């Protein structure tokens, strides 16, 4: 006789929550890692880790923050494992071509250039930039997420911004319209 | 928001407008159903492990342990006893390690948030090629550790002194070998990474982990020299090996550039160093960030080096680095470890 397993209430809540948040989770992961396939892997690992912790996450003061922490941690863990590969294989030093500001697709191209440049910033600095300036998280929360002090977050911000500008070169002012 | 933050916010602004990625999109590999299946399995393992642990504790407590304790000298002390601090004193070594699994400690690095024991072959003359590290983190200080329920990714390994342990999918530093993580105290983790030609690396890694004692008496760091504390600098850590040791200074306790000052047997100048004026009557060389003073005594050289090199200005320039190197005083017999001294920064 075949047994059909019925989803529990908690499991249905988990599924509904993850389905609703998947776009945001994938965006966070993509900004952190810069690659759609890796972003999917990170989200898959994160939601797998979330499942057995779902009750705690659901009852947390801020479920989204709890889940975001798991995504960030999954990224940092995955990054550590990839470290050797990154050094051995390396990656292209070329950024996508500079978009023309008159192009109809300028905004999309600008984002691609920026995203590619962000991917060349060291992972921890990148995580700080993403969490602070794209998720608007306060310094204290970012410190907890990446596992360092608030002073380190500020230092990582300065270094991350410098690295980003270095990668972008003159494009930072020409393309992004800053300075 | 200060100027840096405004700059960063402005520079990254185009990415803010990108909006969420629709999903699961065609081609996306994310599957909620797969996560549920895998998550269920993980939960079942946890439950089974918890039940087994309860049964084991009851059996040991009621039936087995008293008998064992009556008849056997238990020898080692469980490492789980001492609560972990959230920062170490870098002038003290908190970990004691014996030889185990064919590996023996050959070096020790202290720091505020982690202490590292470098491992080499227990019997280097017998042709084995093993090496490794034991890294013990202060409470909550594993990079990426997010809160008290954090645990490493990986398969469960046999417990280490009753504490949960995991086989990492790959060594964190890359490269060959195996890495075992275990919780040595509440919210505090330690890692053993070993590599070598042995066919049973996992067994050996576990034996190495079992040889680690963290609740013994802390030992002061002993070095073959003393030096006055450079003004405005803080001790961040130390390195000690058979051929000498060093102290790492920083301008604050947080991560950043370091000035490492030490004495090592036979240390030679770096490839880019050029002769400079003698320091304390000894020949010296320097480049932009490193000073080497040779023939200081008993074959030892004094080396002072800023990392990264472009941070030398934070430490007052290469002239001050040379001055700090010149302030190092070797002990009378630096080649004899028995004569190395505690509290070297005075």
Quick gist of this model?
The complex is a heterodimer of chains A (179) and B (346). By secondary structure, chain A is mainly alpha-helical.
Could you explain the architecture of this structure?
The complex is a heterodimer of chains A (179) and B (346). With 179 residues, chain A is mostly helical. Chain A has two domains: 1-89, Rna Polymerase Sigma Factor, Chain: A; 91-179, Winged helix-like DNA-binding domain superfamily/Winged helix DNA-binding domain (Arc Repressor Mutant, subunit A, Orthogonal Bundle), CATH 1.10.10.10. Helices cover 72% and strands 0% of the residues of chain A. Chain A has nine helices and no strands. In chain A, α1 packs across α4, α1 packs across α6 (123-134) and α6 (123-134) runs antiparallel to α7. In chain A, 42% of the residues are buried. Chain B is of the alpha+beta class. Chain B folds into three domains: 30-75; 92-219; 221-342, Phosphorylase Kinase, domain 1 (2-Layer Sandwich), CATH 3.30.200. Chain B has four helices and 22 strands. In chain B, a hairpin with a 2-residue loop joins β6 and β7 (163-167). Classes of the chains: A mainly alpha (179), B alpha+beta (346). At the A-B interface, α1, α2, α4, α5 and α6 of A face α1 and α2 of B.
